Amino acid sequence: MTTVLLSLGSNLQPQHYLQAAVAVLRERFGAISVSPAYRTPAVGFDGPDFLNNAVMLDTDLPLGELDDWLHAVEDAHGRDRSGPRFSDRTLDIDVVYYGDLVVEGPGHLRIPRPELKHAFVLKPLADIAPDFIDPVRGLSLQQMWQQHPQHGQAFDTVEL
Fold it and tell me: Which sign does the torsion angle of CA 140, 144, 145, 151 carry?
């Protein structure tokens, strides 16, 4: 079994879609850890605020199969991929970590995800997996969060 850390986000009916995603993940993987959801402004485009959270789970699915399954979950929940890369979305689920695997391409899949630079990805991950060690940096997620420029700032937490 491999420990996987996911980043989830939505800015179109976000409470509904994040609740639905967590339910589907629980149904497929059983016991999962779920972070609080945080409201943050859209990054890279003008749009409604996002809700972002993180999930930790264990799976025996190979990375490619997991990524395909997660894309199918996004699609089943109304994800529209026809527009610009940075745009409104019902559901976005990214594999941020797949055990200690490092994937640098080719293709779209990069692990660890470069979006770790954003507080909306890093903070929820540090909430649920503070001792997880980033295989590139050699630091725990808690250490990485403590070094982040937004560490110590207040975040708007939203109940799912």
Answer: positive
